[in-house]
Amino acid sequence: MSLVVVEHLQKWFTRRTGLLALLRASDGHVRAVDDVSFAIGEGETVGLAGESGSGKTTVGMLLLRLQEPTAGRVLFAGEDIVGFKGGQLKAFRRRAQMIFQDPYQSVNGRFRVVDWVREPLVIHGIGRPQEQWDRVVQGLERAELRPPEEYLLRYPHELSGGQRQRVAIARAIVLEPRFIVADEPTSMLDVSVRAGVLTLLRNLQRALGLSMLFISHDFSTIRVMCDRTIIMYLGKIVEVGPTAALIARPYHFYTRALLAAIPRVQAGARPGRAAAPLEAPDQVAVPKGCRFAPRCSHRRDSCSQEEPPLLEVDPGRWVACPFYTE
Q1: What residues contact 242, with CB distance under 8 A and at least 6 apart?
Q2: What is the C-alpha separation between 115 and 146, in angstroms, rounded?
Q3: What are phi and psi for residue 242, nearest 5 degrees?
Q4: Cross-sheet strand order for the sheet of 71-76
Q5: What digits encode the pLDDT tens for the residues 170-206?
Q6: What is the C-alpha to C-alpha distance for residues 185 and 100, in angstroms, rounded to an integer?
Q7: What is the pLDDT of residues 215-233, one digit of tens each?
Q8: 194, 195, 271: which is closest to 239 by C-alpha?
Q9: Pair 244, 317: CB distance under 8 Å
Q10: Where are the alpha helices (DSSP H) in the chain?
Q11: Who's near 91: CB < 8 A, 6+ residues apart?
Q12: Is the bond preceding residue 129 a cis peptide, omega within 30 degrees?
């Protein structure tokens, strides 16, 4: 059963640059998310991967209503959160939380650990002071900051990067949510502490029955964390599949290029020929037809005429390319 269902989600930003922008409403749109649909099951972790500018972080923000969509629906437990206001939106945010990328910016430097982790409980009016204290201690314990009493009265500058991210995780789970968006939660950490944080997230997901959207550009972390993986390019989904199968045999030429650019993943995979150098795309001048065609060494004349739909080509495998068997 799906907890989160995304239907035809769009987020376009107006880009204004230069003097001419003062004389007209817009000189182009950044199509950060452009007609995206997918679902996340109860207790499932879905990976969302793509290079910078693919739209993956924007999707995560939209799923939590931290940004407003241009169009489309986001269903959470069957309810469309796009229409939520006031108390409805506040109640939803008790059930859905985010873990941000940078532990140095996501933790308020003026708050002690206990104040920062307790703040969501105060906002939502949950428990009396002693109960809130107990839940903070439990959150730190679950985040493997032990003994928690050693961390309660510390300030962020007294913690390492890994400890700060664990505090951020404790804050995210203190409300006992059903859904978490983790936006590259280990990318800012030293390699030596990444494995521990990933193991913590995986154990919490299983122990608490969380559904999770795990956003990353690192396939080694996606392989560890995710049941299924979605690949995005220029605001569009180009491939979806079970993580192990997608990494072992990528279908879309963009996915092959991403994997070919990561030697440690390529060594255990069958990525085929790299499709293109991974250069940053232009999100305003979106090409006609297949968006990846200008960078694809397998492109044909038809690729620049019509945008290929995302089709299920094998059970659980979806790809937006008619030539994926090459």
Answers
A1: 227, 228, 229, 316, 317
A2: 18
A3: -55, 135
A4: 29-41, 2-14, 71-76, 79-80
A5: 999 999 999 999 999 998 888 889 999 999 999 999 9
A6: 6
A7: 999 999 999 999 999 999 9
A8: 271
A9: no
A10: 56-63, 86-95, 103-106, 113-123, 129-142, 161-173, 191-208, 219-225, 243-248, 253-260, 263-266
A11: none
A12: no
DSSP 10: E
Element spanning 41, H or E = strand 29-41
Give the phi and the psi of residue 40 in degrees, each rounded to 5: -125, 125
Q: Which of 16-25, 192-201, 221-230, 280-289 has the lowest mean pLDDT?
A: 16-25
Determine contact, residues 251/238, Cβ cutoff 8 Å.
no
For residues 215 and 58, the answer to whether their CB atoms sit within 8 Å is no
pLDDT in tens, 81-90: 999 999 999 9
Give the number of other Cβ atoms within 10 Å of residue 22's Cβ: 7
The token pair that represents 251 in the structure block: 């279908």
DSSP-assigned letter for residue 280: P
Identify the residue whose tokens are 């990561």: 262
What percentage of the chain exceeds 70 in pLDDT? 90
pLDDT tens digits for range 82-122: 999 999 999 999 999 999 998 777 778 889 999 999 999 99
Do 32 and 24 touch, CB atoms closer than 8 A? no
Mean pLDDT of the chain: 90
Q: What is the three-class DSSP state of 214? A: strand
Between the CA of residue 265 and those of 217, 220, 260, what are the distances in Å?
A: 12, 7, 8
Cα three-residue angle 247-178-185, rounded to 5 degrees: 50
Q: Rounded to 5 degrees, what are φ and ψ at 173?
A: -100, -5
What one-letter code names the amino acid at 184? E
